[in-house]
Amino acid sequence: MTHTTAVRTLRRRRSRPVLLVLPAAILTAVLMVIPIVTTIVRVVSDGGTGLSRLFDLPNVGQVFLNTLYWTVGSVAGGILLGYAGALVLQSRHLRLVGVWRSLLMIPWIIPGVVGATVWRWTLSTDYGILNQTLLDLGLVAEPVRWLSDPGIVLWAVALIQIWVTAPFVMLMVSAALATIPAERYEAARLDGAGSLAILRHIILPAIRPTTGICVLTLAVWALNSFTIIWVATSGGPAGASTILPILLYQAFQNGDQTLVSAVALVQVFIGAVFAVFFARTTRTDLEDQR
């Protein structure tokens, strides 16, 4: 092999990784970088007027609190319910595991509009099956206004979000549980460890990276969630279930592009905080496993 041929071969080998990454880089630029940069340019070009108007809105404090409660509540509920489902499916005493897993995945598979509409009927004050069941059991004296009481409406729609996202957590945790060797459980039981000790010292540490991924994913989904709240309450009553995506859409309906860009930038900033936190947590886990 001549020197020239060897140099060409070396150059081709060096350029191959770049060519493999190039499609993903272009796709990321088109779908993420360009929209984010465009949003930042719009906010900066108007001198920050959109941000000033956003924080001068009379209900901006309630919107941020709603977004916080909505995100924390739906993420915590989805994680707990998903964990419970995964642990039940992991039980040796459960039969027809595949059938149960398929049925539990239905809320995550069906379109969000369909799920929100079903829950809107279920939570209806006048003809909802949930109120009828509670009345028949004598647990309430009168129908609960799930979607029209400002004090509980946000938690009612968060329940729908939990119902939709918990199957994703269940699927991820089930996959993580399958990677734990059976010998660990047997050794722990031989040492006299109970179920809680196994959960604390074997299961939870083993699925910690999966938990981080689930928390970040559910938080991003909650921060960007629109369909469930819009179909169920449209952000009402009196803004009690209005979160940032609903506020953004209402500004879009009013043709207020300045406010739309400002709300979008705030959402990007909040999402970036979660992404940085997730990256640091994942890096720490990888370093601990070395």
Shape, per Cα inertia axes:
flat
The secondary-structure class comes to mainly alpha
The percent of residues in helical segments reads: over 70%
Q: How much of the sequence is in beta strands? A: under 5%
Q: What is the CATH architecture term?
A: Orthogonal Bundle
Uncertain runs are none
- Largest sheet properties: none
Radius of gyration, in angstroms, nearest whole number: 24 Å
Quickly count the domains: 1
| Average of pLDDT | 85
Number of strands: 0
In CATH's first tier, which class applies?
Mainly Alpha
Instruction: Give the H and E element order.
Output: HHHHHHHHHHHHHH
Overview of this structure, please?
It is a single chain. The protein is an all-alpha fold. The chain has one domain: MetI-like fold (Orthogonal Bundle). The protein contains 14 helices and no strands. The longest helix has about 45 residues. The radius of gyration is 24 Å and the shape is flat. The two termini are about 40 Å apart. This is Sugar ABC transporter permease. It comes from Streptomyces paludis.
Question: What does this entry show, briefly?
Answer:
The protein is mainly alpha-helical and 290 residues long. It is built from 14 helices and no strands.
Keywords:
MetI-like_sf, mainly alpha, MetI-like, 14 helices, Sugar ABC transporter permease, single chain, 290 residues, cell membrane, MetI-like fold
Topology readout:
Blueprint: H1 3-45, H2 49-56, H3 60-90, H4 97-104, H5 106-109, H6 112-122, H7 129-136, H8 153-178, H9 182-190, H10 195-206, H11 208-223, H12 227-232, H13 244-253, H14 257-289
Domain ABC transmembrane type-1: 64-278
Keywords: Cell membrane, Membrane, Transmembrane, Transmembrane helix, Transport
Pfam families: BPD_transp_1
